[in-house]
Amino acid sequence: MADARREGGLDAPTRHPLGQDQPVFWDSEDLNRELARVYDICHGCRRCVSLCNAFPTLFDLVDESKTMEIDGVAVADYGKVVDQCYLCDLCYLTKCPYVPPHEWNVDFPHLMLRAKAIKFKNGDTKLRDNLITSTDLVGKVASKPVINTLVNAGNKNSLVRSILDQTFGIHKDAHLPEYNRKPARKQHAARVFDPALATPNPAIDATAEKPDRVTLFTTCYCNYNEPSIADSVIKVLEHNNVKVDLAAREHCCGMPKLELGDLKSVQLLMQRNIPALFETVQAGNAIIAAVPSCVLMFKQELPLMYPDDEQVQAVAKAFHDPFEYLHKLYKRGKLNTRFKRALGDVSYHVACHQRVQKIGPRTKQILELIPDTTVKSIERCSGHDGTYGVKSETLEFANKIVKPIVRQVTEQQPDYYGSDCPIAGKHIENNLDSGQKAIHPIDLLCLAYGI
């Protein structure tokens, strides 16, 4: 048996339930003791210094203190580290040698989440953060006629952006996504799941093989900002003889609210989404979303928050990254590999929230099935995180974190580049000087297929 006290070890990392229903979770004094304990371990290790700005912030606080140890850091400054964490999970999965089953039991992202939750409960949250994490509300309003034109024009107007920066804390130089007048779910309303049509009639053909069916969770971003990505998912799946449904109802996955620490809103969104998704799972559907953060929310975070909810667990098992699902088709000999166009050199950013799903390099493997196509993977965080990359106080750090990716793309000079996370792809694009546009890997498949 592996020794849990040994640094590193051969055992796979174990994730414990979040425990937000336990009274101790909300105890501020207990939180501060745990922050001091974990901060001290991180200070003695420092392996994660290159991942994000949370760790440099922590180490600077220590190094600039009188004792140059954690006991020299004011408890009031603990939150400065928390504010820089956007729950990418990379420290837990790729760097930290002290994650459980190690006896030190370090889960830095979930400790940060606990701190964020207590901060939110205490009302220490800006109106801006409550608004920009309400992606459903913002999307619905911004996609309406007239309002849509005003919002998109305002996002490009330097005077409006300066006012937003000074009064609301949205950086004037942050690139904000456009909103589409016709969201993806409206464009594909005819695909809404019908249990009666999804269930085969045994009286007609009891031996017929059940066709592959997928429920597309469109996500807020692909629904309101880039419906073309949802279109491409549908095209690729149908090109591979997979029937695509939409759930009867869809709301934000809850990841933006989770990162804010608003666990009540996360629970409300879970209660709205899970029954509709579970209905499709009962009919035999897999579930797909083209934004890794949304997939991770259903695959990992909700199951860790609600470990005893059978519907949450069933939905988690059915949820797939698009290329994870396509790779399963490939392994079954059901993936269409008759590609009509080579892609040449592709620079591919591996999104953090896809990496931590532990599914392997499925996007790269599928793209390299295309003849005369070479894919170079870049495993670095883009630093955007949806909201971190637009705030006045953090855009500078987001742009710093993305620089190693920009450098690699610039050096490669690929025919195409992009990320499974469309927001990360845009952030890379906004920091490139070449003017070359990012393209989502699912769109690359459409190009290769000629569809």
* Oligomerization: single chain
What proportion of the residues form beta strands (DSSP E)?
5-15%
Number of domains: 3
- CATH top level class name of the largest domain: Alpha Beta
What is the CATH architecture descriptor of the largest domain? 3-Layer(aba) Sandwich
The total count of strands amounts to 7
Model regions low in confidence, pLDDT < 50 over at least 5 residues: 201-208
Structure characterization notes:
It is a single chain. The protein has helices at residues 28-45, 54-63, 78-82, 90-95, 108-121, 127-132, 135-142, 147-156, 158-168, 184-187, 195-198, 220-225, 227-239, 255-260, 263-282, 292-305, 310-318, 322-331, 352-355, 362-367, 395-412, 422-431, 441-449, and strands at residues 213-216, 243-245, 286-288, 319-320, 344-349, 373-378, 416-419. It is α/β, with parallel strands linked by helices. The chain has three domains: 23-121, no CATH class; 184-201 and 209-320, Rossmann fold (3-Layer(aba) Sandwich), CATH 3.40.50; 338-449, Rossmann fold, CATH 3.40.50. It has a four-stranded parallel β-sheet, with helices on both faces. It has a three-stranded parallel β-sheet with strand order 6-5-7. It is globular. The protein starts with 27 loop residues before the first helix and ends with a helix.
